[in-house]
Write a structure and sequence with these properties.
about 375 residues, alpha/beta, TIM Barrel, 10-stranded mixed sheet, 14 helices, 10 strands, about 40% helix, about 10% strand, Aldolase_TIM
């Protein structure tokens, strides 16, 4: 277990509310229609449970729409972390889909607490049609309005985009849009079957390869936007052979629900029901110290299955040195167990970029 799982998290995901005013067609959140809000007591327990050696820790406020908790409550939730932030032991990030307006008052909070802002948008209007509110109305104009507020206030922002089947042939169009939007960093999530999105239309690996080929080609011509997946792969290839062959430890990513429940390995498991895995709950911060919950992760069946499967991945998969077993949650959502190896996520988000880059390099070498 210690070989594969880091003892000290680098990221903690905190859910201030389950509520999201949006109803994106591919959303994995099962409780996004419920208004369940974290209390300052839970936030204090999270902050108090951050181990003295866990630094720096990124505290990500995410899922549902964190701004839906309201400005006053959000500031109350930040307060228990303030001494840690001022000591540079934690840094905050918020990921918003624009379900609540980004106002000047919100920007004041972002600046005061040095909160990194991530915005979820999939591309230009015609490719953002999966992001709608509960009435089915497009979110595009409202999300753009929030981005314009951030830009007016000179607050930098990153972008997360979901790539659905209809977007796999539009990489250059999407990236041109992101560049013109004013972000310098983009992360792409290929649509996957997760949580509530059990019937999602996962792109084929061939469509994913086309998307990544076009993305690499765009990045070759443009250097003003960092694409997470391109940067990760090129960074890996830049390592020495010894470092590429070395095993890496997975961040346990403790994810704390609005009521203090903690799940590990995959934020997407939050709120998911499973008798076999005891709903994935590793503990509750109101009842036990967060660091203690992480330390006893080896007692959890799904963690045991995942780490055992990593050994199989290492022995059987030619992509393992790069992906190191990828994400735990996708194994469960696709197969109902963590004991499997290959998933659609592996094929579309790990194998496809590698194969796409190899094809481009081979074509260049043959010319």
């Amino acid at each position: 277990m210690a070989q594969w799982l880091a003892a000290q998290p680098k990221t903690i995901v905190v859910q201030p509310t389950t509520l999201c005013p949006m109803d994106c067609t591919y959303c994995y959140l099962l409780e996004r229609h419920l208004k369940q809000e974290m209390t300052p007591q839970v936030a204090s327990a999270v902050a108090d449970g951050i181990g003295p050696s866990w630094e720096p820790v990124e505290v990500v406020w995410h899922g549902g729409e964190p701004l839906a908790v309201g400005l006053t409550r959000f500031v109350e939730l930040l307060q228990p972390f303030e001494s840690l932030r001022q000591a540079r032991r934690v840094r905050h990030k918020v990921q918003t889909g624009g379900g609540r307006p980004i106002t000047d008052a919100w920007c004041d909070v972002f600046e005061q607490y040095e909160i990194g802002v991530g915005v979820s948008i999939d591309g230009p209007r015609e490719l953002n049609h999966h992001r709608v509110d509960r009435g089915g109305r497009p979110m595009f104009d409202r999300t753009i309005a929030g981005i314009e507020t951030l830009k007016r206030r000179c607050i930098p922002f990153t972008v997360l985009a979901v790539v659905s089947q209809d977007g796999t042939g539009q990489a250059a169009q999407v990236l041109d849009f992101m560049r013109d939007l004013g972000t310098s960093w983009v992360g792409f999530n290929i649509e996957a079957k997760e949580g509530a999105n059990s019937d999602g239309q996962t792109p084929s690996i061939d469509h994913a390869r086309q998307f990544w080929r076009d993305t690499f080609e765009w990045c070759r011509r443009n250097n003003d936007v960092t694409v997470r997946e391109v940067s990760n792969l090129l960074g890996f290839l830049g390592l020495t052979q010894e470092r590429r062959d070395a095993d890496s430890q997975h961040d346990p990513i403790p994810t704390i629900a609005w009521n203090g429940d903690v799940v590990l390995l995959s934020p997407e498991l939050l709120g998911v029901r499973s008798v076999t895995y005891d709903d994935f709950v590793a503990g509750n911060v109101l009842e036990d110290d967060l660091s203690a919950i992480v330390q006893r992760s080896d007692e959890l069946l799904y963690v045991q299955e995942f780490t055992n499967a990593l050994e199989t991945c290492k022995q059987t998969c030619e992509f393992f040195s790069f992906c190191q077993g990828a994400h735990a949650g996708d194994r469960f959502f696709e197969h109902g167990t963590f004991a499997v190896t290959e998933t659609d996520h592996c094929r579309n988000s790990v194998q496809a970029p590698v194969l796409a880059l190899a094809e481009l390099l081979q074509a260049k070498g043959s010319r």
